[in-house]
Amino acid sequence: MTSPDPAAEAAQTSAAAQAPSGSQTPRIVSSAADIHSVLAEFGSQGTKTTAVIILALGGIFMDAYDFSSLAFGITAIKEQFGLSGFMTGLVNASIMVGAVFGALFGGYLVDRFGRYKLFMADMVFFVIAAIGCAVAPNEWVLIAFRFVMGIGVGLDLPVAMAFLAEFSKLKGKGNRSQRVNAWSPAWYFATGVGYLIVLIIFLTLPYEQHAILWRIVVGFGAVPALIVLLVRRRYLAESPEWLANQGDLKGAVEVMRSHHNLNVELAPAKERETANQDVTETAAGGRWSGFAELFSPRYRVRTIVALCVSVFSTFGYNAVAYGTPLIITTLFHQTPLITIVSSLIINLGFGTIGGLVGMSIVNRFGTRRITLVGFIIQAASLGLLAIVGIPSGALVLVSVAMLSAFVFAQAGGPGANLMNYATLSYPTRLRGIGIGFNQSVLRAFSIVSLIMFPILAASLGTGVFWIVACAPAAGAIAVGIVVWDPTAKDVEHED
């Protein structure tokens, strides 16, 4: 056997590197930068990657269902356990406290140990917590299991967002901005499904047993969590971008071939050594110093605007979307059935559709512009709700329409794009920490809003909407001032 001609091999490698994905000639990769480039250009082209995207959205579905499953039942819980306004808020907020810790440490862990391992672990929290909440004998046990549930949510969001971004291409149909935005319709669809389950049980359960309705709804969350957990074991794979950053180029290429359906091959060892000689250890990510790097000159403005979008949009969401049953029942003085049906229509209809609209237009208008318009619509809707006050007659429809407009704008605007800001503003090595830090701050402010909103609503009535309107107004100002837009930005090659 004759030895290969080095010059001929080099020429073949150079030609192969330019070959399009899916051609007979493989694309040769020799470094993490090459892998980032191939994935940015071609993304995923196989059914297995589609399964990964669906599984990531399945995690989002569980996050949303567990967050919202207690929303309708909070009135019954307050009566059963004899809770004060503060304790009612604490029951609501306990899941947020868990999410603060889960997101903070989950963001670090997903960059340190990989997306796959953490993704496989977090559903266990949902199963245990859902069952524990359903059988809770008192408010303190309920609070404890809601805290555990929050840890699961906090762990799941950074890894789910990382998968959505890293299993997608940079531009074109099915790009990273669109797929990250997909978390929003998935969230509202899950919330709507929760209210649909509430409606079905409400209509079929004897009236004298309505006190346990919230237990059935919360406990049901364990069922889809188990299904997602089992299916994940079959289809999930590690992110090739994360593997490449860890120096496992062979593993990254294997996933790109098996899941992304990309025709790639690893360059000879000598070429890989030359290509990676300037790569530093920090490229691997997963270091506590990553939190400080979020505020380095390169990322400081991005981190601040991402926090502004998250905090201000979430304050309004917790007060209006999450608190819809409380608003319709207590402030609008409507019956339980009207409350359930209205909440179902607002979330499943306007929320899901708003999220899908936001996905479809983000490429054309960009993350920043859509977020700004969404904040403006929300502020106007809340102002009108405050002006109407306690509605009667036809004004009930006007008030419900304003709630719907708020949720529509949230789902397609700041509520969807807060994840674009937090996920796509950072490269792979910082993505988990960036999302985790953003989510931990977001949840910390959520705790305040969940505790304070019932108290303010009880004392101010519909006047509370003037206070809530300040949040989207502040968000609009922040986004208007900061011009950073993460849409289609190749943050990997900034390093």
UniProtKB/TrEMBL annotation:
InterPro entries: MFS_sugar_transport-like, MFS_trans_sf, Myo-inositol_Transporter, Sugar_transporter_CS. Signal peptide: none annotated. The chain crosses the membrane at residues 52-77, 83-106, 118-137, 143-165, 186-205, 211-231, 304-324, 336-358, 370-390, 396-419, 440-458, 464-484. The keyword Transmembrane applies. Keywords: Membrane, Transmembrane, Transmembrane helix, Transport. It is found in: Membrane. Its main location: membrane. Pfam families: Sugar_tr. It is a multi-pass membrane protein. Residues 1-25 are annotated as: Disordered. PANTHER family: PROTON MYO-INOSITOL COTRANSPORTER. Belongs to the major facilitator superfamily. Sugar transporter (TC 2.A.1.1) family. This is MFS transporter.
